[in-house]
């Protein structure tokens, strides 16, 4: 082989790996939109990634994840959702409640959306039906907002002599009136008055806990909603300061020092969102994927907090707990 031909041959051979790489399809991109912060939800992000791995998608290896966190500022979500659409991403996974899902839905009618939310997605306009969503969105519903009567029953078990129970309600939340109706109906069956404390801002939360002390409200349900979740540590601290026995809707409150929580295992919910996202990446049509309902519930009691606020936890309640924090 002549020298010039040899150089051309070797040069062409060296270029083959580059050409092969250039011809490889680009990695799919998942848009991860959350109303919460990265630091506040690192364990949930890890659960989402585990769900993706169930479909053999590993971040950095064969999928890219574009994260957007509103850091409790809901007004940022529409712009973040629009940014993900412009990239564009292959699918948008929304977490942190209804605001993220609604922002994504308002931004696109074509890019698939996988949501996690605590209310009925049909009522929220995210799906046409549960078994067949019909549009570009599907996901996981926790129905967390519909579990308030169960929490009321647990609080009644804790405080059987209580003459009333407080309900801290976010008046700006779309499901607030439904939550109130559910609690009032359950309370009426117990002949137990409900004192409603409405709070839609940080200042109103502070004022609500002042009212708890002034009105000597013996116990409190903190109604499930994304706004309160982003103020979790502050709400727990105010409850302890006022020695108010309170029940919340997921374990992170109890881990932060809340007295009791009853609700879904949220890492499992996020894993399910990741799993559904993986199925969409593999070609599943979100309009034909049924909205799943999470079913793994857990009851957590924080005995350290009980001792700090002077509350006695009955043996019966302890026997019902899935976990007791000492």
Please characterize this protein's 3D structure.
The protein is of the alpha/beta class and about 325 residues long. It has 2 domains: about 30-145 and about 265-295, Response regulator (Rossmann fold), CATH 3.40.50.2300; about 145-265 and about 300-325, Rossmann fold. About 45% of the residues lie in helices and about 20% in strands. The chain is built from 13 helices and 13 strands. α2 links the parallel β1 and β2 (about 65-70). The chain is elongated and about 60 Å long. The termini are far apart. Residues about 1-25 have low confidence and may be disordered.
Descriptors:
elongated; 2 domains; disordered N terminus; six-stranded parallel β-sheet; 18% strand; Rossmann fold; 326 residues; alpha/beta
Nutshell version of this structure?
This protein is α/β, with parallel strands linked by helices.
Total beta-strand segments: 13
Question: Which band does the percent of strand residues land in?
Answer: 15-25%
Overall shape: elongated
Radius of gyration: 24 Å
Secondary structure: helix percent: 40-55%
Summarize the SSE layout with pairings.
Elements: H1 3-23, E1 29-34, H2 42-53, E2 64-69, H3 77-86, E3 91-95, H4 98-107, E4 113-117, E5 137-141, H5 148-158, E6 165-169, H6 176-189, E7 194-198, H7 202-215, E8 220-222, H8 226-230, H9 232-241, E9 246-248, H10 251-255, E10 260-264, H11 266-281, E11 292-293, E12 297-302, H12 303-309, H13 315-320, E13 323-325
Helix pairs in contact: 2-11, 3-4, 5-6
């Amino acid at each position: 082989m002549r020298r010039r031909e040899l150089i051309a041959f070797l040069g062409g051979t060296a270029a083959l790996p580059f050409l092969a790489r250039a011809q490889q399809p680009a990695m799919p991109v998942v848009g991860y939109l959350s109303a919460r912060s990265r630091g506040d939800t690192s364990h949930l992000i890890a659960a989402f990634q585990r769900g993706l791995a169930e479909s053999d998608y590993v971040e950095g290896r064969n999928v890219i994840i574009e994260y957007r966190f509103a850091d409790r500022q809901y007004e940022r979500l529409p712009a973040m959702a629009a940014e993900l659409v412009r990239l564009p991403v292959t699918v948008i996974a929304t977490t942190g409640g209804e605001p993220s899902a609604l922002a994504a839905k308002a931004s696109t009618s074509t890019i698939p959306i996988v949501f996690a939310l605590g209310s009925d997605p049909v009522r929220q306009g995210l799906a046409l039906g549960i078994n067949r969503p019909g549009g570009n969105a599907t996901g996981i519903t926790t129905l967390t907002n519909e579990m308030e009567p169960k929490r009321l029953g647990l609080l009644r078990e804790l405080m059987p002599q209580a003459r009333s129970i407080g309900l801290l309600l976010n008046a700006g939340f779309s499901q607030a009136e439904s939550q109130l109706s559910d609690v009032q109906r359950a309370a009426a069956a117990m002949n137990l008055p409900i004192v409603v404390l409405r709070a839609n801002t940080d200042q109103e939360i502070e004022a609500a806990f002042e009212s708890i002390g002034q009105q000597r409200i013996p116990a409190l349900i903190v109604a499930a909603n994304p706004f309160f979740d982003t103020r979790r540590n502050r709400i727990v601290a105010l409850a302890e300061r006022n020695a108010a026995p309170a029940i919340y809707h997921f374990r992170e409150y109890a881990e932060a020092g809340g007295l009791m929580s009853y609700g879904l295992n949220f890492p499992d919910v996020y894993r399910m969102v990741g799993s559904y996202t993986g199925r969409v990446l593999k070609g599943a049509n979100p309009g034909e994927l049924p909205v799943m309902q999470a079913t793994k519930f857990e009851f957590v009691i924080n005995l350290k907090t009980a001792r700090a606020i002077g509350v006695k936890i009955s043996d019966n309640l302890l026997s019902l707990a899935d976990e007791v924090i000492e």
